[in-house]
């Protein structure tokens, strides 16, 4: 990848995600594009035009302030950082930026005091994850980049090495010299025989790609998927959680608002979502 995209609303959480992204960019020798979007009502009224102008002016001032902060901290000496400011909604802005640049990863902060819980309650981050095909790392407000030693990959093994994003997980694990633990949560509804077949097929197809990384896999029995994931990353002292986004899959299950009390509660664990 040439670029990592970092959306920002100029908040403390967003800056934390930017610092996290800089450390990831170093691993991949990538550049960073910092993107801000602002949206005004559509219409021809002069008041709308005035609002648009004012929002653009405020955003440009914030970008200058952010740029100066980056200079003061010497972050620009670590990786190349570019800026963009678009009058559109955040999902469209990110999608357009991805289409016009070699963006391999989006890294953004979650908002609010509830960490990852906020991720599943309709925040901007959740909208991006649901509607963007590019891999996304969501960084909770209390998370800081540290040496990632243990990666948990929650999966049903219904995947193959032809998926362009599976190599990202393998490459990230290799560059970090981390351990990759693939886990499958077994519930009453799980077709265990089919899952085992998927796992056998996956490991056979990917044996060459996996041979140079430290990995293992196991199954967790739990009636609640989110509880099972909690067990997985806590038992393995995880530094990064990885999930595959697919139609009617685990991500959709976790985004169900009725599961508010069951979602992942660890406010320090970054989440990487990839397309299935």
Written account of the structure:
There is one protein chain. With 276 residues, the chain is α/β, with parallel strands linked by helices. The protein has 2 domains: 3-139, HUPs (Rossmann fold, 3-Layer(aba) Sandwich), CATH 3.40.50.620; 150-238, Rossmann fold (3-Layer(aba) Sandwich). The model is unreliable at 112-122 and 255-267 (pLDDT under 50). It has a 10-stranded mixed beta sheet with strand order 3-2-1-4-5-10-9-6-7-8, sandwiched between helices. It is 41% helix and 23% strand. It contains 10 helices and 10 strands. β6 (150-154), α6 and β7 form a beta-alpha-beta unit. The chain has helices at residues 12-28, 46-73, 90-100, 116-119, 124-131, 166-176, 192-205, 207-210, 225-235, 250-255, and strands at residues 3-7, 31-38, 81-87, 103-109, 136-139, 150-154, 179-186, 214-221, 240-245, 271-275. The protein is elongated.
Order of helices and strands: EHEHEHEHHEEHEHHEHEHE
The CATH topology of the largest domain corresponds to Rossmann fold
CATH hierarchy, class of the largest domain: Alpha Beta
Q: CATH superfamily assignment of the largest domain?
A: HUPs
Oligomerization: single chain
- Number of E-state strands: 10
Task: Kindly report the average pLDDT value.
Answer: 81
Helix content: 40-55%
- Provide the domain count: 2
The share of residues in extended strands comes to: 15-25%
Main sheet overview: 10 strands, mixed
Give the number of helices: 10
Shape: elongated
* Rg result: 20 Å
Gap from first CA to last CA:
19 Å
Low confidence ranges = 112-122, 255-267
CATH architecture of the largest domain, by name, is 3-Layer(aba) Sandwich
Question: Structural class of the secondary elements?
Answer: alpha/beta
Strand order of the largest sheet: 3-2-1-4-5-10-9-6-7-8
């Amino acid at each position: 990848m040439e670029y990592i995209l970092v959306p920002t609303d100029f908040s403390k959480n967003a800056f934390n995600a930017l610092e996290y992204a800089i450390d990831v960019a170093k691993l991949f020798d990538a550049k960073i594009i910092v993107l801000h979007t602002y949206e005004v009502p559509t219409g021809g009224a002069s008041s709308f035009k005035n609002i648009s102008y004012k929002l653009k002016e405020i955003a440009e001032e914030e970008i200058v302030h952010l740029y100066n902060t980056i200079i003061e901290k010497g972050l620009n000496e670590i990786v190349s950082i570019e800026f963009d400011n678009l009058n559109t909604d955040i999902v469209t802005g990110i999608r357009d930026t991805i289409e016009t640049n070699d963006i391999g990863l989006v890294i953004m902060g979650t908002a609010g005091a509830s960490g990852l819980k906020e991720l599943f309650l309709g925040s901007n981050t959740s909208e991006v994850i649901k509607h963007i095909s590019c891999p996304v790392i969501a960084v909770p407000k209390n998370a800081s980049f540290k040496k990632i030693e243990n990666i948990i990959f929650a999966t049903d093994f219904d995947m193959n090495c032809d998926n362009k994003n599976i190599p990202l997980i393998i490459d990230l694990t290799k560059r970090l010299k981390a351990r990759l633990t693939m886990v499958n949560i077994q519930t009453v509804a799980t077709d265990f025989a089919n899952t085992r077949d998927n796992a056998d097929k996956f490991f056979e197809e990917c044996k060459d790609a996996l041979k140079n990384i430290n990995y293992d896999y196991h199954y967790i029995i739990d009636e609640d998927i989110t509880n099972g994931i909690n067990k997985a990353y806590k038992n393995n002292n995880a530094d990064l959680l990885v999930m595959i986004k697919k139609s009617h899959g685990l991500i959709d299950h976790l985004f169900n608002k009725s599961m508010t009390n069951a979602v992942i509660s660890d406010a320090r664990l970054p989440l990487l979502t990839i397309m299935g």
